[in-house]
């Protein structure tokens, strides 16, 4: 069994929750879950008990920006060529879209609405993508969908789809997506991060652990490049396992070597309805060496030193 602790969708998205768990009483009681959900629920519960053995840090929030409450954030990435532009994937069936947004004002500069059958998930930005099936020698956005096992590649200015492709994960779901510009890193809600080439062909996997225990529910991802004495790493939102915590993951070992506790941002926003208390969305700024974070349908986004 697993226990629903935090609703990760709006009421209009209950199908996503009920596709994971069949309610046997009310939402206040334990529910029976699919095999994958039992596995990942056990993983994140066990890992949470061992947090005291992994260092925790409170990042310094340095700025805040307006964030459009209408976006149920599933993916977030900054434009590496314009630090005042970001791309955001907004989820929910019948409502999913990808947006190009002015960071400083929250103004939507362009939007592409996904077909109603898709639930939009993680996105990432590949600069000067190599020629091939999904892209030419220009920058492109890559985006996942939740249950369709399909992804798309988009232009970065007007968000026009230029290619569609399929992918494979053990859970048959797509969650987070990021890149180091030569490979894609994808999550599927388990403890596995899939390493793909730029054609979404699997070339490796990274198994993520927290104090030696598999850490499931890996969600939104962000690649953080090496800088100074700091090695390259991945950051991940972890659904349920600490509502306002980010995991910092070693690319060499898959170990979570630090948790970033962002619970202080609650005091910087109006009170949130419980259905919106889902921390999701990470974007790295190479210009300032900061991360930008937000949540599903939040009214603000925050830049922080980590």
Order of helices and strands: HEEHEEEEEEEEEEEEEEEEEEEEEEE
Report how far apart the termini are: 36 Å
**Structural class, please?**
mainly beta
What is the radius of gyration?
18 Å
Contiguous low-pLDDT stretches (5 residues minimum) are: 1-47
Helix content: under 10%
Number of helices: 2
What percentage of amino acids are in beta strands?
A: 35-45%
**What would the principal axes of the Cα set say about the shape?**
globular
Query: Strands of the largest sheet, in order across it?
Result: 3-22-21-20-19
Total DSSP E strands:
25
Mean pLDDT, all residues: 84
Major sheet: 5 strands, mixed
Can you describe this structure?
The protein is mainly beta and 306 residues long. Helices cover 6% and strands 43% of the residues. The strands form 7 sheets. The protein has a 5-stranded mixed β-sheet with strand order 3-22-21-20-19, with no helix packed on it. A hairpin with a 6-residue loop joins strand 20 (233-238) and strand 21 (245-250). Residues 1-47 have low confidence and may be disordered.
What's a concise summary of this model?
With 306 residues, the chain is mainly beta.
Reconstruct the topology from this structure.
Elements: H1 14-18, E1 21-22, E2 32-33, H2 35-48, E3 56-57, E4 60-66, E5 73-79, E6 82-90, E7 97-102, E8 108-113, E9 120-126, E10 140-145, E11 150-154, E12 161-166, E13 177-179, E14 184-187, E15 192-196, E16 202-207, E17 209-210, E18 213-214, E19 218-224, E20 233-238, E21 245-250, E22 256-261, E23 279-285, E24 290-295, E25 300-305
Parallel strand pairs: 3-22
Antiparallel strand pairs: 1-2, 4-25, 5-6, 6-7, 7-8, 9-10, 10-11, 11-12, 13-14, 14-15, 15-16, 17-18, 19-20, 20-21, 21-22, 23-24, 24-25
């Amino acid at each position: 069994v697993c226990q629903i602790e935090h609703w990760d969708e709006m009421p209009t998205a209950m199908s996503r929750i009920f596709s994971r768990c069949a309610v046997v009483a009310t939402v206040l009681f334990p529910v029976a879950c699919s095999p994958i959900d039992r596995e990942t629920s056990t993983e994140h519960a066990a890992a949470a008990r061992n947090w005291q053995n992994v260092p925790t840090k409170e990042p310094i929030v340095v700025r805040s920006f307006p964030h459009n409450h209408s976006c149920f954030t599933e993916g977030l990435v900054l434009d590496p060529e314009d630090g005042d532009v970001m791309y955001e994937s907004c989820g929910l069936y019948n409502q999913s879209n990808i947006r190009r947004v002015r960071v400083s004002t929250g103004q939507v500069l362009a939007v592409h609405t996904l077909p109603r059958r898709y639930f939009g998930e993680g996105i990432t930005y590949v600069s000067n993508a190599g020629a091939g099936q999904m892209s030419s020698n220009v920058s492109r956005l890559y985006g996942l969908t939740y249950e369709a096992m399909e992804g798309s590649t988009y232009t970065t200015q007007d968000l026009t789809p230029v290619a569609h492709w399929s992918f494979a994960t053990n859970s048959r779901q797509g969650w987070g997506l990021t890149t180091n510009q030569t490979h894609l890193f994808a999550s599927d809600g388990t403890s596995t991060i899939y390493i793909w080439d730029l054609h979404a062909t699997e070339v490796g996997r990274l198994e993520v652990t927290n104090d030696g225990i598999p850490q499931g529910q890996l969600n939104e991802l962000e690649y953080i490049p090496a800088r100074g004495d700091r090695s390259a790493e991945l950051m991940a939102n972890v659904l349920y396992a600490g509502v306002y915590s980010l995991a910092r993951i070693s690319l060499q070992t898959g170990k979570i070597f630090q948790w970033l506790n962002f619970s202080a941002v609650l005091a910087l926003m109006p009170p949130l309805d419980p259905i919106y208390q889902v921390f999701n969305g990470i974007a790295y700024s190479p210009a300032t060496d900061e991360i930008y974070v937000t949540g599903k349908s939040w009214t603000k986004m925050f830049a922080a030193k980590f």
